[in-house]
Amino acid sequence: MDLLLSILNIVFCIAFLLFAYVNLNDSDSWLWVPIYMVASVACGLAAFHYVYPNLYLIAVTFYLVYAVVLFFSKDGVKDWISKYGKPSLVESMQATKPYIEKAREFFGLLIISAALLLNYFIH
Fold first, then answer.
1. Per residue, what are the HEC states of the chain?
2. Which residues are CB-contacts of 87 (< 8 A; sequence separation ≥ 6)?
3. Which tens digit of pLDDT belongs to each residue from 52-62?
4. What is the rounded distance in angstroms from the CA atom of residue 39 to the CA atom of residue 59?
């Protein structure tokens, strides 16, 4: 189990690092690069058994609060579901519709939160 968790954390670390990289050219990179880098570093450290439960809780709290904001904001996830009827978010890498970026960001925050909570509860 310990080896599996280390491998999973390495995968998360690399994935979040790549997500931070692709956000470098966005207009809101000042927000998203640190979001993904905190998760990447936390997972990378956890892969080598350096765990910081308080960091996980602080980060997850921020991520989930921001996810709720994205859910209820104009053209957010709630509108994507109810107003737009849940069309595909992955047809194109370009966010051509107003809800696409917020919905993708929402799900990204949930993935990050799940990774950090996994480390919090298992370690």
1. CHHHHHHHHHHHHHHHHHHHHHCCCCCCHHHHHHHHHHHHHHHHHHHCCCCCHHHHHHHHHHHHHHHHHHHHCCCCHHHHHHCCCCCCCCCCCCCCCHHHHHHHHHHHHHHHHHHHHHHHHHC
2. 80, 97
3. 999 999 999 99
4. 8
Model confidence over 90-123: pLDDT tens digits?
766 566 777 888 888 999 999 999 999 999 999 7
- Sign of the Cα torsion 67, 63, 119, 5 reads positive
Residue 45 corresponds to which amino acid? L
Within its chain, how far is the Cα of 118 from the centroid? 14
For tokens 């609060």, name the residue: 65
The answer to pTM > 0.70 is yes
Q: What are phi and psi of 10, to 5 degrees?
A: -65, -40
Q: Residues 6 or more apart from 57 whose CB is under 8 A from it?
A: 120
